[in-house]
């Protein structure tokens, strides 16, 4: 499936991606410069960034291979403009990531999120996409904030 709205991240997208990260309470947006530095220096084999661009960067996905594994990747970020939630942008980004990785014989895609009530919708999103809840690491992010790991076999 080719989606004409999905493309590689460009430097000009960073301000918009900062907004997406901040408005979705993902992590401090100032971390993006360090996170994208390897990508913009040509190391696209160790990390990938995509944007969904219908009217600017409406969504973003960031994923990397898991070190010391054979064919396992980890989606570290997916964020959609809050005013566009519910329009299928996140699902389209995930489908694109899954199809791209499956075509490269990647076996497993992991995603992780918070176990707090604020992230219940996020967990439901992964379950809707047929991800299996694999692990819960209690108090991972902070006391009372568990890390929930989801898994999907791609091959």
Automatic annotation (TrEMBL):
Example of a GO MF term: acyltransferase activity, transferring groups other than amino-acyl groups
Pfam family, one: Acetyltransf_7
Domain of life of the native organism: Bacteria
Keyword set, alphabetical order: Transferase
The N-acetyltransferase domain, residue ranges: 4-155
InterPro entries: Acyl_CoA_acyltransferase, GNAT_dom
Protein name listed in UniProt: GNAT family N-acetyltransferase
Protein species of origin: Parerythrobacter jejuensis
